[in-house]
Amino acid sequence: MANDKQPVRVAKAAGFSVHLFTASGGAVAVLALYAAIERHFAISFAWLGLALFIDGIDGTLARAAKVHETAATIDGVVLDLVIDFLTYVLVPVVALWRSDLMPTEASFWIGLVVVIASALYFADTRMKTDDLWFRGFPATWNILVLYLFVLRPPWMVSAAVLLGATALMFAPIVSVHPMRVAKLRVATIAVTVAWFAFAALAVVFDLAPPLWVTAGLVVTALYFLALPLLRGSPWA
Q1: Selection from 82, 80, 74 nearest residue 59 by Cα
Q2: DSSP letter assigned to residue 169
Q3: Which residues pair with 175 in a beta bridge?
Q4: What is the pLDDT of residue 231?
Q5: 134 phi and psi, to 5 degrees?
Q6: What's the CATH code, domain 2-230?
């Protein structure tokens, strides 16, 4: 009898371990937030990169461990959204506010708009399409704000980009989920890995990377921006 229960216990332990792994993103968010408050922006984005890595693989682990069966008392979707709101929205907004990318008053009020709109977006039941694309801009402020730190456009351009992206969260467009895309999956994952490499280099260079790293970030971004155009293409 004891031996019969052993596989069940192992499965439950595996399921709860995945939830714990996802929840660890909350601790990473605190570390990133502290670094942002202290104006250690490269360190903050390093922590956010770790959080993005956790978020990128925890879904695969959850499906492998069948957490909806083995650890059903924890809602993995809600847990993931809680962590994502911290790392995708709150920390980047604070980093923006603490930076010199735009006047403090502008970054403060724009940050409030971003947080409120993102809260509504995260709670929108239509956030994902049936084929697992995101509707609208997927509130990846951690990535967008990283680009603002690297490219450093005039502050009014940054403000326009932030407000435009806020509006696009509720626009009739789609954005790819890099780890769950079906068409061009191999190419998309390869570009995602390349993006991670360029982003890591940008952090290593204290968010002032050489031109070739910046070019890599721009080119990979253009790939993801163009990908929705191929969503319905029979050649993709």
Answers
A1: 80
A2: T
A3: 134
A4: 67
A5: -85, 140
A6: 1.20.120
State the first-to-last Cα distance of the chain, in angstroms, to the nearest integer. Answer: 52
CA distance 10 to 129: 34
Q: What was the pLDDT predicted at 28?
A: 96
- For tokens 């008053």, name the residue: 105
Reduced to 3 states, what is the DSSP secondary structure of residue 129? coil
Q: For residue 103, is pLDDT > 90? A: yes
Residue owning tokens 């995708």 = 88
Look up residue 149 and give its two tokens: 């730190």
Q: What is the pLDDT of residues 171-188, one digit of tens each?
A: 988 888 777 776 777 888
181: left (phi over 0), alpha (psi -120 to 50) or beta: beta
The C-alpha atoms of residue 56 and residue 46 are separated, in whole angstroms, by 15
pTM for the full predicted model = 0.90
Residue 166 confidence (pLDDT) above 90: yes
Q: What DSSP string runs through 12-45?
A: HHHHHHHHHHHHHHHHHHHHHHHHHHTT-HHHHH
| Count, residues in the chain | 236
The band of 41, judged by pLDDT with boundaries at 50, 70 and 90, is very high
Would you call 135 helix, strand, or coil by DSSP?
Answer: strand
- CB count within 10 Å of CB 131 equals 12
Structure-derived torsion over alpha carbons of residues 10, 16, 18, 22, reported in degrees to the nearest 10: -170
- SS3 assignment, position 182: coil
CA separation for the pair 16, 186 (Å, rounded): 30
